[in-house]
Queue: 3 jobs
Job 1
Amino acid sequence: MKIPIIEIPKNVAYIDIISPILREIEREQYKEAQNAIHLQNQVNQWIIQGKDFQTITTKISKLLDISVITLDKEFNIMSSFVPIGSGFAMESIHQFISKEYLALSKEQLVTIVWAEENQMIHIHPIKVKGRVYGFTVAVETAVQQKISSLIMESISTGLGLLYSQTLFIQDATNKMKKDLLDDWLSQEEVNSDVFLERSKKLSWSIFEKSGIGILSCSGLDVNVENILQVIRSYFQQKGNQSLTFIYGEKIVFFLQSRKSYQEYYRAFFEELYDSSLADAYKDVHISLSPSTNQLIKDGRFFYEELTSTIHVQKKLDMLPKVLFLNEVPIFSAQFLNKDKRLLRKMDDLLAPLIQYDEKNNSDLLETLGYLLFSKDFNELPEKLNIHKNTLNYRKNRIKDLLPNDPFVSPYRISYELAFLIKKISL
């Protein structure tokens, strides 16, 4: 390493050399602070004007002539603006996040800077009172050198205020929604007029809605908010203006009127499940009401039946993911849980299989359920992870053990009902 040595003449005071340097440093620091304050004031002004994340992100990007991206706490992109010709690729962020996930997840995180193909990428937490709401990503060319820690702090502080304000409004709105639904579903005095008056405050347009639905998703790692965002994006993509919101641990739909209502929504939700939910979430169940012209009046009763149907779907994994109430009314029938004499009779029908399974540690009862309720026999070996010959053996063994063939009329319906009641009562 070569270090230049500068010889200072004896008649030159050291202070005469260092003072201009310090003044220049102070000037640059003052300029940087002024720029940060100006940016902070601009962001605050945009927030006061009611600008959203995307608008503010775009304005910051244009003001500083850099690329700006905001991410939520799960590193999903909330807003972004990348100037044309910047040469920045979003993949760079995803790759870095994958590599540095643990470091980025720490609450005490400060700005991280890394170089990527002649670009400097800065990522800074969006914080309010120590709580991380997301991240600001700023990208500049290596020669720009515009972004300092003060600038990043100013951007993130402003966005943090916007984020916390947005969440506060969302929380208040969600509470109003929950209160309305609680009252509607549990109190007779919430009539159509009362419901409509309160729903207007939530910007709910109920007049074009003709059905109600529930989506339930089980599992320890399930984030209902994330699922709701996926669903809303899908509805928007399809041009469907149904209302979607979280109620408890479920997602509730007020479904927009459509021609051929059931055919439309069956295809709609099956595609939603297959394209957006099946790979990420295994225990998804969707129950939908038939169409009605009196949703506010009928919705209360529909909701009770939908909840019962979802309960059955969770118990019977072999059922379709999407079910309509009017197609399976027995799933919401009250006698399934109340008629004890019927329960005993139905239990007796399955007793030979139950006893055989207990003695031999086998799964004939469960296999019977799949054989009775699955649409396609040919798909069952893969679903049950067994060979086709094994499935045929089990089917024949079931017929041998039971007094009547459960796969032919008039006995099939009794065994279907018996299996259904058995599962619900577990």
Job 2
Amino acid sequence: MPDKGPRPSLEYLTGIARDLIFNSTFNKTINTYSVALKKLCEFRELYNLHKRWSVLDQELLNFITYLATQKMPATTVTTYISGIAYAHNLKQVNETIKSFIVVKALEGLRRKTGELRQTYEPQ
């Protein structure tokens, strides 16, 4: 490959990569995910929890339960969890969002609030 001038620094490449990823997501989505992370921070402060990545599945379960007790709609809770998953993916950390207890808690919340309908006919 022919040399086309000075090579860019890794810091420069990292910045460009961040911009590419940022530009792949709509601003409204980023704003919504920012609200989700803010709510997570508020929850952590309320219960004196450590602010670390990744968010442990038990902490996510408690966060989901907390939001449910605040009468947060299941769709909003699911969106918030998606925002946390997005942050996990950006930080390239394990995604506990898909853990069994988190998935089941979200499903249970949707069923409880009537936001999940049965997809089969009872016999």
Job 3
Amino acid sequence: MGCNSSKSANEAVAAPTAAPKGTKEITLYVNGLSPFARTTMMVAQTTVGVNVKYVEVDLLKGEQNEEWYLKLNPKHTVPVLVDGDKVLTESVDISKYLIDNYGKCKDANPTGEKAEQVEAIVKYVYGTLASIVPKIVLPILIHGKPEDVTDEDFEAAKIHGYEYFNNQLGDKEFLTGDKPTWADFLVFSLLMQMDIHPKTDKGQHDKLKQWAKRIHALPFFPTVHKTFLALKNQMSKAHNPTPMLYVNIASPLARAVLCTADELGIEYETTHLDFMKREHKSEEYLKVNENGTIPGLKHGDKCIGQSRDIARYLVEKFSPASSLFAIDNQEEINELLKFDEEKCFQAAIKIVGPLLGGKEIPDENREFVKSVKLEAQEKLGEKQFFGGDKVCIADFFIFNNLIQTVIDPKHDHENPAEDLAVLRQYVQRMMAIEHVAKKVGEFKETMAKVAQMMKEKREAEAAEKSEEEEL
């Protein structure tokens, strides 16, 4: 399918772009902020044998009220489809028309029982949801004031939007089965409008979140929703505080969370917590993380104190389609995170714990670490990363916990174990990621300083004890 776009609706009408020779062209008048327009744009992306030309109608400038547009649509709304002499002004009619006449997959506008399901969904959307969502969106779009949205309206939107469709999904991948229909596009585009509210959180609606990730994963998603996503990011920066990560680079779990944030490319702030000064046990920090462990996250009113939950949250909040926690691999990634928590993190503790206590590392601790590395290598197999061809959040945790063990004084950097050759190559691939290598370097520098401080402390204590004995 070919597609053109135009920023000026007037110019587009006066001088339409020629379609490729032999390919029919139709024109779709849209605005990227309209959920109904985006619905038809998603449908248009599934067409074949026709060149769809998009004309952006600037609603803020009032182009929908200009004479040239009113000739197309006296109701001055978007979208509008022009196919030769045929003009359609309702998104429902446009979606069905595109699928029935040019759709690559007719299942997107099904027949029979599924057609009845689609009609029921559409009836609910226009009869209930379409009148609720604007009460959430318009105060923010027009006045930039989310505080003008009443609690009653916000709660109604969650009940009739998130909760209703979470229940509708059941065990299905999409609203009517294992394939998306244009009803999925409609519901998604409308629910997406609610995302610009700073307090929007799909919470425990897990089925809805998984469904949304499937829509996000469609290849044309970024193109269709580009304008709205830009607005959403702008609103998010204006009304959502930047995530605050409480970290210490010496912590492998903190580094894993930082790696996740950097891989996502999100903006965040950090607060360094000094272990030696026990800042992680301060009254202020315990309000963020009642366990008093590092790392911790505070994002608006949201506080999370478990590192792996923080990583999941960052992906789901800022980039739900990311391969870091890919929908198709989530079960496997969660199993890897469990392995990391039960084995890799424990391996790190068995090396770091004795060293921080000024004690020798027992041989059985080193044997445990070796067994964990062999098990990790077995899980890695022939894959590039634990998540497959691309890194996932489990990679950041497993890698950083195992890297923690190299501070063992008896770790032989010059003559690495041959039976860990596969894992060693994996470490090299991880170190090729710039932000990962940087954190490892900072970790080693920090641990070298800690080791020197502890050495000086032990020497001072020994000298003091010697003086006492002489006296």
